[in-house]
Design a protein that fits this description.
By secondary structure, the chain is an all-beta fold. The protein has one domain: Immunoglobulin-like (Sandwich). About 0% of the residues lie in helices and about 60% in strands. Strand 4 and strand 5 form a beta hairpin. The mean pLDDT is about 95.
């Protein structure tokens, strides 16, 4: 079965795809605690390998509060992604509201040592019964 990624954005030869999923088993709505997992696929369609060095996330909850998170790599690694290959990972995000939006940027490095940024598309964190849209 092919995983569907409803959110995608391409910067140069790098495509970032995201598929978020609400986790009711980890959430506690009575305490205003909601958790989502998000599956990210970073595809290298360029001619050379690249390395994902760092990331910056901008997370906006349902009240409009913004939290920025920066750090090295993703899920504890700084993956090297060969030409024509992809790197997948899954992470999570808790919020105090029933919905929110995440977006961000990856900071990458090419074979020549040149650093560049790759956009992470904005994607909705929604409970299944709610349907607000990023667009």
């Amino acid at each position: 079965m092919t995983r569907i990624f409803p959110f995608a954005e391409t910067t140069g030869g790098i495509t970032v795809r995201v598929a978020p999923r609400y986790l009711p088993e980890q959430s506690d709505p009575e305490r205003e605690y909601y958790v989502w997992a998000y599956h990210v696929r970073v595809e290298n369609h360029g001619p050379e390998q690249v390395q994902l060095l760092a990331r910056r996330w901008v997370i906006t909850d349902g009240h409009g509060r913004i939290d920025e998170i920066e750090g090295d790599g993703v899920v504890g690694v700084q993956p090297v992604i060969g030409s024509g290959h992809a790197y997948d990972y899954v992470s999570g995000c808790p919020l105090p509201t029933r919905h929110g939006v995440m977006q961000g940027v990856y900071f990458m490095c090419g074979n020549d040592g040149a650093r560049f940024s790759v956009a992470i598309p904005a994607f909705s964190l929604e409970m299944p019964e709610s349907r607000p849209s990023v667009h």
